[in-house]
Structures are given as structure tokens and as C-alpha cells.
């Protein structure tokens, strides 16, 4: 009997070992059969901040991974031009303002906008209330700051409209503005460019030396490009024209847009958590400032009646017409954008029950503190 039990036990052990080997082989086969994630790179227009929160959220929440993508998000900077990065093949996707894209196309670059995320312009010019400079026309003879490097087109179009030639400093003196508001705060320039979500907050986070209290909106004239009549579309997703001709790359782009749009929808509904995600990727800008920025960026995207990312033909035509009228481009563009990929991405998101229009979204109230803390 001892011999029989030993034989049976040995048989069981051999069987278990066989199952283990078979299971391990099956597991290795599954791993081998699983398709590798498609690696792509996204080149941002600027440094890591809430301006790009939707993309960081898509990565942090696993939306890109679920789409089968391994997305590398590359921050931008003062010496980085997204169009050049994408055109040279160093990134598949880029984020930049539409007039800058049109200017690159006008010079021969084959770049195509595949999604227009920001629906409204966040560009403004700030002046001090006591300066009396309440319009673009009143900047004649003044020192006007802008960052340049493709960020100047809305302002330059407004100055040309008012009879000045900023490219030749005729009627106005253009000063290359650093990426802070010190020249303006020190009154070394008469007007400074400011995005509603960034530089405007920098001023409102600073103390008035005369009062010891933070500056308020009542201390400023905020001249929007909308009021100047030269507002242009900003922050769109673009790719190389030759790259997107491939059916495989179109599928990749559709997946990228679907996951990115879901990221933006998440940021719309989760302001605090998206701010946290951005801060986790880069804590350089403080929490209070990033919270303001997240709120203001949402206001440039939502509500989006056509669905986030779908180019509005009228807005495109306006941007292109203003660009041509004021010398940003020499001829009106053809084939500069497509909407099919964005629409396909939205269709999938709607099928998942995700709100892609944000029609009920309302802007939050964010209180700024000194230094953006």
C-alpha cells in the first residue's frame, strides 16, 4: 500500500508539473500575442502647465494605454517651435496656434490640423488703468511687449489694423517680452501680452508696492483680441501631411484624439484632480496659479457645441482671412485641416456615454493669492 500511495502521489506531482509548464507556456504565448503599444510623441507648445492638462490626464488616467498607445509628452520652451519638431519627424503630434501653423504651411511645411481643442482666444494686451491706453489704436508711439516666436500674429494683426507696422517698428515699438510680467510690473513697457490663463494671473498674484495689496482687475485695462477684431484660433493638434496619409497612422491619430478628448472631459469635470495631475508632472508653477489656469483653460474649450476638437469652419475662415489680410500669410490655405478623425473619436466617446460638448459646464470661482500659492 505504501508503494501504491507513493506511485499515485508521484503521478499527481508529474501531472501538476505538466500543467504548470503548460500554463507557463500559455502565459508566455499570451504575452507574445499581445500587440505592443504604438509609441508616439506629442510636442507641446510650452512648458508643463494646465494649458495641456487634458493630455497629461489622458496619460495619468490610462486612456492612452487603453487605446494601445505609449505617448511621450514633450514639454516646449522658448527655443522650441512645435512645427519644426513635427516637420522634422521628432514628434508625430504637436500643439500650436492656428496662425502659426498657417504661417508654416505658407512657407512650404506640409502640416495639417486634425483637432481644434481651444474654441476661443485667450490672448489679451494689458495696460495700466492710469495709462489711458484702452484700445490697440492708443498704443501708437508706445512700447508694446510680446513673446514673438509665432505668438505675435493676433497682436500684430491688430496693430496693422490700427495703422501701425510692428514688423518694422513703425508707429509702435515692439519689445520682446520675457516669459514673466516683470517689464510690465516695473512699467518698462506700456503694454504686455497676457493669456487669460497665465500672465494675467501673474499680475493679479503680485503686490502693488503703493498699497501692499495684490493688484486687482480694476487696476488694469484688459484688451482682448476678440474686442480688437483679430482673435484667432489657438491650441490645436496637428500632424505631418505625409504621415497622416497612411491608414495605420490615421487609426493611431483617431485613438490619440479619442483618449485626449476624454482627458479634456475629465479635466472639465475634475478641476482639482487635473490640477493635481499637472503639478505631479511639474511643480514649478504653484497650486493656486495652476488652479486658476485650469479653470480659465476650461473656459476656452467649454461649452463646445460641435463636440470638443471639431474645427469650426467659420472660425477657421476668420483666422485664415485675418492672417492674410494682415500679412501673416500670403495666400488663403487649402487642405490645412480635417475633421473626420476628430468626429470618429467623438462618436466612440459618445457610445461610451461621455459628454463631449459640456453644454452645462460653468466656470468656477478661483481666488488668487500672492505668488500663486
Class from secondary-structure proportions: alpha/beta
What number is the mean pLDDT?
91
Largest sheet descriptor: 5 strands, mixed
SS field, number of helical segments? 14
- Helix fraction bin: 40-55%
Beta-strand percent range: 5-15%
Radius of gyration: 26 Å
Uncertain stretches of 5 or more adjacent residues:
1-22, 25-32
For the termini, the CA-CA separation is: 80 Å
- Strand order in the largest sheet: 2-1-3-10-4
Q: Report the strand count.
A: 10
Order of helices and strands: HEHHEHEHEEEHEHEHEHEHHHHH
Architecture overview:
The protein has 373 residues and is of the alpha/beta class. Helices cover 42% and strands 13% of the residues. It has 14 helices and ten strands. The chain has a five-stranded mixed sheet, sandwiched between helices. α6 links the parallel β6 (143-146) and β7. The radius of gyration is 26 Å and the shape is globular. The termini are far apart. The model is unreliable at 1-22 and 25-32 (pLDDT under 50).
Layout of strands and helices, then pairs:
Elements: H1 2-33, E1 38-43, H2 53-60, H3 63-66, E2 69-74, H4 82-87, E3 93-96, H5 98-106, E4 111-116, E5 123-128, E6 143-146, H6 153-161, E7 173-176, H7 182-185, E8 192-195, H8 199-204, E9 220-224, H9 225-228, E10 236-240, H10 247-269, H11 271-281, H12 287-301, H13 313-325, H14 340-351
Amino acid at each position: 500500500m505504501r508503494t501504491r500511495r507513493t506511485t499515485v502521489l508521484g503521478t499527481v506531482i508529474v501531472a501538476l508539473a505538466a500543467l504548470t509548464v503548460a500554463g507557463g507556456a500559455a502565459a508566455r504565448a499570451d504575452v507574445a500575442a499581445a500587440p505592443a503599444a504604438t509609441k508616439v510623441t506629442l510636442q507641446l507648445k510650452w512648458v508643463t502647465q494646465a494649458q495641456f492638462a487634458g493630455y497629461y490626464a489622458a496619460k495619468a488616467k490610462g486612456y492612452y494605454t487603453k487605446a494601445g498607445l505609449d505617448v511621450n509628452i514633450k514639454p516646449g520652451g522658448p527655443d522650441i517651435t512645435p512645427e519644426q519638431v513635427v516637420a522634422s519627424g521628432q514628434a508625430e503630434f504637436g500643439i500650436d496656434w492656428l496662425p502659426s501653423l498657417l504661417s508654416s504651411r505658407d512657407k512650404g511645411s506640409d502640416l495639417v490640423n486634425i483637432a481644434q481643442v481651444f474654441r476661443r482666444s485667450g490672448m489679451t494686451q494689458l495696460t495700466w488703468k492710469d495709462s489711458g491706453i484702452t484700445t490697440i489704436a492708443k498704443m501708437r508711439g508706445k512700447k508694446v511687449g510680446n513673446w514673438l516666436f509665432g505668438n505675435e500674429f493676433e497682436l500684430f494683426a491688430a496693430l496693422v489694423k490700427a495703422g501701425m507696422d510692428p514688423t518694422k517698428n513703425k508707429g509702435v515699438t515692439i519689445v520682446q517680452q520675457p516669459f514673466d510680467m516683470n517689464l510690465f510690473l516695473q512699467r518698462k513697457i506700456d503694454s504686455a501680452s497676457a493669456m487669460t490663463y497665465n500672465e494675467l494671473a501673474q499680475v493679479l498674484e503680485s503686490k502693488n508696492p503703493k498699497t501692499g495689496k495684490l493688484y486687482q482687475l480694476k487696476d488694469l485695462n484688459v484688451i482682448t483680441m476678440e474686442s480688437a477684431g483679430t482673435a484667432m484660433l489657438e491650441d490645436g493638434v496637428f500632424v505631418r501631411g505625409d504621415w497622416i496619409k497612411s491608414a495605420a497612422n490615421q487609426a493611431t491619430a483617431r485613438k490619440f484624439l479619442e483618449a485626449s478628448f476624454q482627458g479634456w472631459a475629465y479635466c472639465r469635470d475634475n478641476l482639482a484632480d487635473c490640477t493635481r495631475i499637472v503639478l505631479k508632472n511639474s511643480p514649478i508653477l504653484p497650486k493656486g496659479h495652476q488652479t486658476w489656469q485650469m479653470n480659465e483653460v476650461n473656459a476656452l474649450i467649454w461649452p463646445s457645441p460641435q463636440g470638443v476638437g471639431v474645427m469650426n469652419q467659420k472660425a477657421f475662415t476668420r483666422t485664415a482671412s485675418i492672417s492674410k489680410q494682415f500679412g501673416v500669410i500670403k495666400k488663403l490655405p487649402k487642405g490645412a485641416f480635417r475633421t473626420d478623425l476628430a468626429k470618429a473619436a467623438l462618436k466612440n466617446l459618445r457610445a461610451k456615454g461621455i459628454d463631449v460638448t459640456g453644454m452645462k459646464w460653468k466656470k468656477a470661482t478661483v481666488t488668487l493669492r500672492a505668488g500663486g500659492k
